[in-house]
Amino acid sequence: MSTQSTAPDERKESVRPSGAGVAFSPRGAVPAAPPPTIFQLAWPSITTNVLHSIVGIVDMAIIGQVSVDAQAAVGSGHRIVFIGQAAMMAVTAGTTALVARAWGAGEHEEAERVTALSIVVCSILSLMLGAVGVLLAEPLAATFGLPPVTTARTAEFIRWLSAFHLGFTLQFVIGVGLRATGDVKTPLVIGALTNVLNVVLVYAFVFGELPGMPLPIEPMGVRGAAIASGIAFTLGSVVLGFLYLGGGLNLQPRFAGMLEGTRLRRLWHIGYPSGLEQGVLQGGFYLFVMIVSQYGTAPNAAYNIGVQILSLSFVIGFGYSIAASTLVGQHLGAGDPGRAEEAGWHSMRLSIFAMIGLGVLVIASASRVAPFFNADPEVVSLTVSFIYILGLVQPLMAIEFSLSGALRGAGDTRWPLISVLSGLLGVRLTLAIAFWWMGFSVLWIYGALIGDYIVKSIILTTRFARGRWKRLAI
Fold this sequence. Notes:
Elements: H1 3-6, H2 38-64, H3 68-84, H4 86-104, H5 108-135, H6 137-142, H7 148-162, H8 165-181, H9 185-207, E1 209-210, E2 213-214, H10 221-245, H11 261-293, H12 297-333, H13 337-364, H14 366-373, H15 377-392, H16 394-409, H17 414-437, H18 442-447, H19 449-466
Antiparallel strand pairs: 1-2
Helix pairs in contact: 2-3, 2-9, 2-12, 3-7, 3-10, 3-11, 3-12, 4-5, 4-8, 4-11, 4-12, 5-7, 5-8, 7-10, 8-10, 9-10, 11-17, 12-13, 12-15, 12-16, 13-15, 13-16, 14-15, 16-19, 17-19
């Protein structure tokens, strides 16, 4: 897909003179503290996400002991739930940009009202999306075209995980607001406790026991994995909610006056491109998994296992994406676009070095790690091949993570959307469909993602280098 046909007209952007891209008046604001460094912001987020990825890896390994069908069901079910989270991402993209700019300008009360508004909006959306997942679990699961047993298990997983949608959402939204202010340690602590509890509960609910300790509950298999994760994250949300409402966090609960027209328009203006981006992204991944599923259950399971293993590398990119969003937004809020640009490029360089390093380690150990998830020879072989392919694009993924984050922090959320439309839909899915139609092996389908990340990295690097994001008035 041509980027030209989807690119917004630059002449229609609302701009201010360079150095004046601050959306909040500093009058009456508290003095802004110096922004933290990239590493100070990145390491807690990376640690949080590494823990989450390790938990995901352990969960996938636990489910793998049930069957290949169960493993494919959990991976496919997550794809449906992730699509529903696109609406949350739309709101929180605006949250990050607005809170970071307000915090950088010393307008702490504005940052608190934006966060409160985001909590309310996301809670309403979450309840609606949870209801959709519960009521339409069977038809949603059937779209993957998996065997009947796997489809039934997928529907069961979707239904139970959707029932806990609100519990996942509240922890996520409050954490986004805190990170935008520079508080990345509180989400780390809550996330660590949540993930440890998640592992214990998943094992207990899937098998009806803990190692060497029978429990008075029946083994629940796939259903147990969904319920366990839902309980763990809901408890994490309850703890974080009590801290928030009790005034024990960086952000105070300031719900009074949050429903103001200008604030809502800002949240919408920044958020809707990110919502579309996430919708396209998760929808594209969903269609890609559907194509992979045409080759059978083993290729589907191998894809999900490979993504889970390499998620240890992805989370580094997420960490630097958060750091870039926060620092770019805060520096623009403080009226310093030069330091905002420096933070974006520096985040990109650090992300590339880190993701390449960890990616090499994962690739080198792929043949030894893959059997840990599933001993089926076909699944192991396909998993290793997929890890090799995905490992090749680690530096390109690092560019996407860091520069997308930097642009979102500036409020320039349209160009990450354009990159996804061009790379995922225009290249990856087009190639995957062509390869499938021509009867190529599933390895060619896996390989289609290489072109996707090449296109994304070119688009995002070009946009950030041109610097128009510095002058956006949000």
